[in-house]
C-alpha cells in the first residue's frame, strides 16, 4: 500500500530485516511504501541514508516527522502505533506483564541463539551464490550444528505451546521468519523438518496472510 | 536487598549481562537477591538452571510464579513492573511512542554496533587474563577499530543530546554500562576518552547511584 500518509520503508524487501518490518506493517494493516535502496551501489552508506541511520544499515523508516532505524525498534513502533489503532493482531502483548516478558525473552533468543547460526547458513547458501561467490562448507557445517542445537530447545518448548511466547503468535515468532524463509529453500530445511514441533510452528507462521504477502516479495529461485 | 518477595537473580554480578539487570532493579527500587551460580563448574548448564533457561545462559530470574531469562527481557519486565509501581526513573518511555522507539533503536545499536566490538576487547583484555589465558592482540586491534568507528557516530549524536535516546536517561544507556565499566579499566579507555561527548555521557552514567552500587559488585582489580 502507498499514499500520502504511508510509512516510508527504505531498503530492499529481499533483506530479512526489511521483511520483518513489512510483515509487521501488514499485520497491523498500516499503509506503507518500500523505497528501494541500491545496495549494490552501497546507497545505504550515502549521506542521504546516513541522515536516516548513522550506521548505514537497512531498514530505516520515515513516518511523518519520525525517522527510525533498526528492524526491531521499527517493528515495535509499528505494532504499538498501528495495531493498537487499527485492530491488528496484538503481537507485543504489552498489556500483560508476563506475556510481554515472554515475547521479549524469545526475541532475544532469536537474536542470540537462532540468528547467529541461521544467518551464516543463509549467507553461505543463498546470499553469496546470488552475487556469484562460492560457499564455504566449513562455515555452513559449523553453524548447522549450532542451529540444530538451538532447534532442540525450540522443539521441546513448541511441544508445550503453539508459539514461542505462549499460545499466541507474537513478534518473537515473526522475527524468525525472514531467515527461515530462505533456509527452507536450501537443503538445510531438513533442520526444521526433522523437528516435528518446529515444523508445525513454521507451517502455522507460513500460512499467515501477512507472511505470505511479504514472502512473495523475497527472491524465490530454488537454490 | 533481599526478602520473601524479592526477585531472585541467578548468575554472577561480574557478568555485564547480570549487571544490567541489577542496575534496573536498583533504578526501580525493587527488592532482589543474587543467587550465585558457579560458572567455573558450568552450573549454568546443570538441569536445575536449564529449567530456568533452556539455553543455559545467565542471568535468569524468578519473580513469584514467573521464570524469565535474557537480560533485556528481564530488564524491560523489571522496569515495567517495579518502576511503574514504585516511582523509579521511567527508563522505557513506553507512554510516548516516539521516545520509546528511540530507546528501542539505541538498544539495538548497542546489540549490533557497540557490543560486537567492545565484547571482544573486554574478553581479551579482562576476562581471559582473569582465568590465566593470554590475550590475542590481533583480535583486540580488529575490534578496537570497529569500536572507534561506532563511537564516532555516538559522539556526533551525543553532541546533540545528553543521552542516546534523547535528553532523558533510558535502558538504552544502561545497556552500555556493563562492558564499558570493564573497558574503562583497560588502556582502551582511551577510545571513550578521546570523544568528548561520549566521555561526558559516560561520566553522567557512572555518577548514577544505581550504577555506582552495581559497579561496586564487579571485579575492580586494575588490569
From TrEMBL, chains A, B:
Keywords: Transferase. It holds the Pfam family GST_C. InterPro entries: Glutathione-S-Trfase_C-like (IPR010987), Glutathione-S-Trfase_C_sf (IPR036282), Glutathione_S-Trfase (IPR040079), Glutathione_S-Trfase_N (IPR004045), GST_C (IPR004046), GST_Phi_C (IPR034347), Thioredoxin-like_sf (IPR036249). Residues 96-223 form the GST C-terminal domain. One of its GO terms (molecular function) is glutathione transferase activity. GO terms for cellular component: cytoplasm. The keyword Transferase applies. Its EC number is 2.5.1.18. GO terms for biological process: glutathione metabolic process; response to herbicide. Coiled coil: none annotated. It is an enzyme of class 2 (transferase). It comes from the Eukaryota. It catalyses: RX + glutathione = an S-substituted glutathione + a halide anion + H(+). Residues 5-86 form the GST N-terminal domain. PANTHER family: GLUTATHIONE S-TRANSFERASE RHO, GLUTATHIONE TRANSFERASE. Belongs to the GST superfamily. Phi family. This is glutathione transferase. It comes from Panicum virgatum (Blackwell switchgrass).
Amino acid at each position: 500500500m502507498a499514499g500520502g500518509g504511508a510509512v516510508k520503508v527504505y531498503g530492499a524487501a529481499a533483506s530479512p530485516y526489511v521483511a520483518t518490518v513489512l510483515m509487521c506493517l501488514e499485520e497491523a494493516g498500516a499503509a506503507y511504501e518500500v523505497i528501494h535502496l541500491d545496495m549494490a551501489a552501497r546507497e545505504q552508506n550515502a549521506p542521504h541514508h546516513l541522515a536516516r541511520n548513522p550506521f548505514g544499515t537497512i531498514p530505516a523508516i520515515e513516518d511523518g516527522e519520525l525517522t527510525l532505524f533498526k528492524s526491531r525498534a521499527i517493528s515495535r513502533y509499528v505494532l504499538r502505533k498501528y495495531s493498537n489503532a487499527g485492530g491488528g493482531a496484538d503481537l507485543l502483548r504489552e498489556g500483560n506483564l508476563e506475556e510481554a516478558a515472554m515475547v521479549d525473552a524469545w526475541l532475544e533468543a532469536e537474536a542470540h541463539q537462532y540468528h547467529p547460526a541461521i544467518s551464516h547458513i543463509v549467507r553461505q547458501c543463498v546470499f553469496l551464490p546470488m552475487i556469484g561467490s562460492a560457499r564455504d562448507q566449513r562455515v555452513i557445517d559449523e553453524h548447522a550444528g549450532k542451529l540444530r542445537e538451538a532447534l532442540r530447545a525450540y522443539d521441546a518448548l513448541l511441544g508445550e505451546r503453539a508459539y514461542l511466547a505462549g499460545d499466541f503468535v507474537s513478534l518473537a515468532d515473526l522475527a524468525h521468519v525472514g531467515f527461515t524463509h530462505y533456509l527452507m529453500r536450501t537443503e538445510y530445511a531438513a533442520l526444521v523438518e526433522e523437528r516435528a514441533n518446529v515444523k508445525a510452528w513454521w507451517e502455522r507462521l507460513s500460512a499467515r496472510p501477512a507472511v505470505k504477502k511479504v514472502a512473495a516479495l523475497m527472491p524465490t529461485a530454488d537454490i
